[in-house]
TrEMBL record:
Keywords: Cytoplasm, RNA-binding. Required for rescue of stalled ribosomes mediated by trans-translation. Binds to transfer-messenger RNA (tmRNA), required for stable association of tmRNA with ribosomes. tmRNA and SmpB together mimic tRNA shape, replacing the anticodon stem-loop with SmpB. tmRNA is encoded by the ssrA gene; the 2 termini fold to resemble tRNA(Ala) and it encodes a 'tag peptide', a short internal open reading frame. During trans-translation Ala-aminoacylated tmRNA acts like a tRNA, entering the A-site of stalled ribosomes, displacing the stalled mRNA. Transmembrane segments: none annotated. One of its GO terms (biological process) is trans-translation. HAMAP family: SmpB. Belongs to the SmpB family. This is SsrA-binding protein. Its main location: cytoplasm. GO terms for molecular function: RNA binding. Gene3D superfamilies: 2.40.280.10. It is found in: Cytoplasm. InterPro entries: SmpB, SsrA-bd_prot, SsrA-bd_prot_CS.
Amino acid sequence: MAKKKKTPDNVIVQNKKARHDYFIEDTFEAGLVLEGWEVKSLRASKVNLSDSYIFLKDGEAWLLGCHISPLQTVSSHITPNPTRYRKLLLHNRELAKLFGAHQRQGYTIAALKLYWVKNRVKLEIGLAKGKKLHDKRATEKEREWNRAKQRVLKNA
């Protein structure tokens, strides 16, 4: 019986599409500026990170395309916007590194995963370079080869 790979308890959601489409060269941990209803929705894992990306403007980093679905119990006096811009909290040296790399040809900044650290929501972002089709095929071949190796070693 095959066991399913378990994600850690603190991980809310992962962006597997980003790891498939990009080579991740460097990762950073960023805080998020959230509203109360967003935190409640994150606790219920009502979030989609697959089409999100990071936008740099005026010395700040912003998360775009992250869809946090509002719960039915959201207060009636606010109107939640599930895809609003969310500010990322990073140190100045990290922002400078991201700005410098983003200006180079072919680099983008992708959101990789959301997780909890001491009751605070953190976003792992990655400095990424796009993969070509042949790179994706090579990655898939390598993954299948590693699975086959593990099967042979397990049966031996």
